[in-house]
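Table S4 entry, ABC transporter domain-containing protein.
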Amino acid sequence: MANPSIELHDILVKRDGRVILNLPSLTFEKHEHWAILGANGSGKTTLLQMILGYLWPTRGTVRVLGHTLGSYDVRELRKQIGFVSMAMTERFLASDTAETIVATGRTAAAGSYLPLSAEDCERASTLLEGLAMTHLAGHLYRTLSQGERQKVMIARALHARPELLVLDEPCTGLDFPSRESLLEMIEGIATAAGAPQVLYVTHYPNELFPSLTNVLLLKEGRMVAAGEKYIALTEENLSETFSLPIHLTWEDGVPNARRKKAANAFD
């Protein structure tokens, strides 16, 4: 039986007369973990802004977690969505500890000046322990590495037990060990009992972790392909998405995409 979390119907977004996003009908089922993949300027951010209720389409209907945007209080909707982006890492006081920041997740408000209940702090402690981050609890935010900050932001997003966890390019700026550690953590979250649905946004195919089931490929505001990852994520579709000849292999549910070697003029 269908159980959609996100439903997009005949979406068109125009700004200053220019088409930013043009999508046919598309449904995300709650049991699916999705990757949204495309180059910079492909429409990924515009799509996220619609799903989060920050942007309205010029044409079409958007339903998120059973509610049609425009007929429901988006502030209430956002309480059911955990959202992490690089921009969020600058919103918090440098003097806040990791545990304090995670504890603000229930209200989704930034700043240690907000009153935190004992329940808020207990939930934060439980999350940090469950994500193997207890050692960071008392560390000041300003002393954390970029990878550690991203982990703290994800833990914070989980505080309110969201139905949907949206991760907007969380590996940006991370070195290889930090990226692998973060992806391993996200994989653990996605496969845990009672896990939220994960929506993972990236422009790097090789960041797709094993439990992602479906992929949406975007190019210049239009859909190249969408569906189960082994069907949608092909060399042909990737090559079109990135305007680059791509060779694709798979290992343990993880894609490995590389640019195809050009013919050697000296051969």
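Helices lie at 44-51, 74-78, 98-103, 118-130, 146-158, 176-191, 229-232, 235-242.
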